[in-house]
């Protein structure tokens, strides 16, 4: 687990109201695709990028990176979560169902001994 003073991610956005909110950083890789929880941070700034068009640089200071990402596609809640996020095809989107946030917090706590209280603004 690594606490850092600067986070940045480039992504297309399905929602531009991200400042002040927690961004759960996930990645998918391989064939068949495997999904991992890589970290979480509070978004402080959105900066439009020149190329590719429609993408933004999301920056923040408060958060955590898991040095070894946590594989999450094997959990029972993951397929419904993926469906709620349009299979991640729409870019960064709000997680509207609080049970998914609680599930990711639980996985992070169990797998990486992470305590969500370090991010008081996490919804």
Explain how this protein is built.
- There is one protein chain.
- The protein is α+β, with helices and mostly antiparallel strands and 123 residues long.
- The model has no long low-confidence stretch (mean pLDDT 82).
- The strands form two sheets. It has a four-stranded antiparallel beta sheet, with helices on one face. A three-stranded antiparallel beta sheet has the order 2-6-5, with no helix packed on it.
- The protein contains two helices and seven strands, in the order βββββββαα.
- 18% of the residues lie in helices and 36% in strands.
- The longest helix has 15 residues.
- The chain is globular and about 40 Å long.
- It has one domain.
- Strand 5 and strand 6 form a beta hairpin.
How are the SSEs placed, and which strands pair?
Elements: E1 2-3, E2 7-12, E3 22-29, E4 34-42, E5 45-48, E6 55-60, E7 63-71, H1 78-84, H2 98-112
Antiparallel strand pairs: 1-7, 2-6, 3-4, 4-7, 5-6
| Coarse morphology | globular
Rg from Cα: 14 Å
- Mean pLDDT, to the nearest integer, reads 82
Which class best fits the helix and strand makeup?
alpha+beta
**Largest sheet, order of strands side by side?**
1-7-4-3
Got a strand count?
7
Helix content: 10-25%
Biggest sheet statistics: 4 strands, antiparallel
Uncertain residue ranges: none
Q: Summarize the helix and strand pattern as letters.
A: EEEEEEEHH
Distance between the termini: 21 Å
Strand content: 35-45%
Number of domains: 1
Query: Number of DSSP helices?
Result: 2
């Amino acid at each position: 687990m690594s606490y850092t003073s600067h986070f940045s991610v480039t992504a297309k956005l399905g929602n531009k109201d991200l400042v002040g909110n927690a961004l759960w950083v996930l990645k998918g890789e391989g064939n068949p695709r495997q999904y991992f929880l890589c970290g979480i941070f509070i978004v402080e700034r959105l900066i439009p990028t020149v190329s590719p068009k429609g993408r933004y640089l999301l920056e923040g200071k408060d958060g955590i990176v898991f040095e070894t990402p946590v594989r999450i596609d094997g959990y029972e809640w993951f397929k419904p979560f993926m469906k709620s996020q349009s299979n991640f095809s729409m870019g960064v989107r709000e997680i509207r169902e609080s049970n998914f946030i609680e599930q990711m917090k639980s996985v992070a706590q169990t797998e990486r001994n992470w305590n969500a209280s370090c991010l008081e603004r996490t919804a």
